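Quick one: structure tokens for this chain, please?
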Amino acid sequence: MNGPRVICDQDGEIICIIHQMAGDVLPHEKITSLHHIDLEYDALDFSTHQIVGVDVETMKPIIEEIPVPETEERRKIRDLEDALLLQADNDIGGIL
């Protein structure tokens, strides 16, 4: 079990509270140093990307695209696009 962890700034203002956890959880790691980065407003579209970490050497965010599962409709569209590309390739003599 882990009790809550409160992260605060140099003036004691609360930045984040990580609530308590029970069950099969790893213990809190000891924090020896805290850093922060500020990004420009709208610098990242959080509906398509996520910050997975911070490169502490450059203090730049490590960003990954959020995978979007392919729906049946998207698969059909991709298959039709591929078929059209192959047909166009055959019609003009094979550039693909």
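The mean pLDDT is 88.
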